[in-house]
Amino acid sequence: LSELTGLEAFGHAVDERFAELASEHVGRVHDHWQESFELAGSVADEAITVIARGAELPGADLAGPSRLVVLDDISEIVSAQRAQAWGEVARRLAHEIKNPLTPVQLSAERIERRLGSKLDEADRALLAKGVKTIVDQVEAMKRLVNEFRDFARLPSAQLVPVDLNELVNEVMQMYGGEESQVRMVAELDDSCPRILGDAQQLRQVLHNLLQNAQDATEGCLQRQVTVRTQWIAAAHRVRLVVRDTGAGFPPALLKRAFEPYVTTKAKGTGLGLAVVKKIADEHGARIDLSNRVADGAIRGAQVSLSFAVAA
């Protein structure tokens, strides 16, 4: 293990655990060791969490002890636990933080109304600027708390036959107007049958993915977001793909991108993809996130979802 690129530290840690096991006195309670490790930058270029169990095997040859190491990838379990924990955090935030925000905003506006006319022009301008800052920041906090609330209280999906192409067209009308700096492209497969879905939740999925994709292209020479639907007859499923021409995801984040508060943005909660994943699970949809690579370079990110069709 210590000779594999990216796993050197893990290999040394395994050696240390065996050394500790061997140093224990005779008649020890445990005949093996067990520990969890986060392998960042592993041979798979993805951060994964594993439980490693090690034991020395009887009948060792003259060359030295024979050792058995069993590795279990528990990345998905850890991810699910993090999502559950964030759901609890979201519920507490919605209750504890949102309630005081409205009184703060109303008090600031009341102070401006009462004192504004009693101040000279310079002080009145200073007061107005301060009140505007308070109101703007309160609104930002409300949006933040609402995102957490929506993540925690996402209702169960009501699955009915839905025309995905029609839904995509409807949502994309809100993006890519003449004033938009991002080119929006729809590549819709007319042969797609209806899928089983909750139209309201699927709209939220599209909004989140389109907003993320647009944000990802900021600062890029070519700013384009493509939405594609495809009928996969062999699998009897409909595929939705949203891709952008941005910088893509750092490899270490790819496996954790759907966890709450995991984001590459300077601002934002990182809840967009977490909500998408939660809705996909409600729909029984397979979801995948990857970087688009061409000529050895990352050319953007891609999120795909695969839905079951309506009977």
Structure description:
The protein has 311 residues and is α+β, with helices and mostly antiparallel strands. Helix content is 42%, strand content 26%. It has eight helices and ten strands. It has a five-stranded mixed beta sheet with strand order 5-7-8-10-9, covered by helices on one side. A hairpin with a 2-residue loop joins β9 and β10. α6 (199-216) packs antiparallel against α8 (272-283). It starts with 7 loop residues before the first helix and ends with a strand.
Q: Which oligomeric state applies?
A: single chain
Mean pLDDT: 82
Order of helices and strands: HEEEHHHEHEEHEEHHEE
Radius of gyration: 26 Å
Overall geometry comes to extended
Query: How many strands, which pairing sense, and closed or not: the largest β-sheet?
Result: 5 strands, mixed
Quote the beta fraction: 25-35%
Strand runs, count: 10
Helix tally? Answer: 8
Helix content: 40-55%
Distance between the ends: 50 Å
Strand order of the largest sheet: 5-7-8-10-9
* Low-pLDDT residue intervals, each spanning 5 or more residues: none
Structural class: alpha+beta
Secondary-structure topology with pairs:
Layout: H1 8-23, E1 33-39, E2 48-61, E3 64-73, H2 75-96, H3 98-115, H4 121-152, E4 160-162, H5 164-172, E5 183-187, E6 195-197, H6 199-216, E7 224-232, E8 237-244, H7 251-254, H8 272-283, E9 286-294, E10 297-308
Parallel strand pairs: 5-7
Antiparallel strand pairs: 1-2, 2-3, 4-6, 7-8, 8-10, 9-10
